[in-house]
User: What shape does this take?
Amino acid sequence: MAGRFGYRRIYEDALAQEGKRVLVDRLWPRGVSKERAHLDEWLRDVAPSSDLRQWYHHDTERFPEFRDRYIAELEDSDHRPAVEHLRDLAAHDRVTLLTATKDVDHSEAAVLAAWLDSAGAAGR
Assistant: This one.
């Protein structure tokens, strides 16, 4: 993790250096019990809208547009409380954003981590 935010698949074993573990998917991942997830929180409100998620459907050709659309959603006032909550968590510890997506580098967790670590997202 280069910044305060990292990302991983929820199916991977938890690591001590991950800090706070926050699931950022709108839907609960299949086959993962709450005990096995070792979550600190499940923050559905920061996930992409259902329409955006269904449009993207993890098609890597669409990833650049998905990233732009998702960032536009994150900058919308509806997401502001969830985004601020993540920033508050990161003020005290590292935060690992978790997703069930197989291609984690082309996921909302990757976009969110990069956006939160950027100076523009921090409101500076």
Summary: The radius of gyration is 13 Å. The chain has a mean pLDDT of 90. Residues 16 and 94 are 11 Å apart (CA to CA). The first helix runs from residue 34 to 37.
